Amino acid sequence: MDDQTDVARLQGMLLEQFREEADAEQQLVQIRTLMADLRKLFLYYEFGIEEVSTKIEILRKEFEQIHDYSPIEHVRGRLKSHESVFRKALKCGCALTVDSIRGEITDIAGIRITCSFVSDVYWMAEMLSKQPDVTVLQTKDYIAEPKENGYRSLHLIVQIPVFLSTHTEYVPVELQIRTIAMDFWASIEHKLRYKYDSELPEHLAEQISDSARVAAELDQRMGLLRDEVRPSPNGGSDLRH
Ligand SMILES: Nc1nc2c(ncn2[C@@H]2O[C@H](COP(=O)(O)OP(=O)(O)OP(=O)(O)O)[C@@H](O)[C@H]2O)c(=O)[nH]1
Ligand SMILES: Nc1ncnc2c1ncn2[C@@H]1O[C@H](COP(=O)(O)OP(=O)(O)OP(=O)(O)O)[C@@H](O)[C@H]1O
Predict the structure, then answer these.
(1) Of 104, 145, 148, 174, which one is the catalytic site residue?
(2) ipTM of the complex in this document
(3) 22 C-alpha to ligand 2 centroid (Å)
(4) Domains of the chain, start order
């Protein structure tokens, strides 16, 4: 589907939603209200990203202090763009209302955590999941069961409370936790898919799927090396040597 078709469909959806408002002026007011409500909702999601990022930072610093190495290579939080939310709503047939969007699109707030080792990926997921104010709404383990194209990552949708002056908002945040090798692969695959508009030529699809196997093997080998220098039980780590 090209951009123009998308825009036309979006316009159609908005007009359909406000068809009761015969007056074009009134329709415009309704659309402006929807956009203002969405901006407010997005601010709550931004707070959600900040809260979970703080949790991740605390876990990282504490782990570093105990073991003298970081289980996290990098963290990237992102708020989905309005355009991307609308496109997704179009794709899943969800109505363009704040209630439907918040009910059906759970990746508006997202954080990607890149770890060195597969064991660190599961450690991060476990540490975050067991915090009392975190509710895990969904887990998709694409490491245990990779996607057909070879995509691997651990996905969690967690819900956290955001305490505001008048009420508490419960915000879903999509966590994508993966190793450097998984992230490298996903980044290249994403670029290729974008370039070929999701229709990868067969020889490239084969190569990307083969590269996924190599990346998985690299993770396995690195895991074995890590076991050689596993943090000692007294809390010190041999990785600093
Ligand atoms: N590069 C890459 N990223 C992927 C792939 N599959 C999933 N992702 C990422 O993970 C997100 C969520 O994917 P899923 O957990 O499969 O969720 P879904 O609801 O089935 O799929 P979406 O409609 O894409 O959100 C996507 O929006 C991408 O950011 C893949 O094959 N390649
Ligand atoms: N949970 C996440 N955390 C951090 N970055 C993310 C997350 N999900 C996607 N991204 C990145 O954010 C950018 C914008 O992604 P966007 O949300 O528009 O699309 P998408 O998640 O890839 O696809 P879709 O809308 O089909 O789910 C991309 O670079 C994507 O890799």
Answers:
(1) 174
(2) 0.96
(3) 37
(4) 3-231 (3.30.460.10)
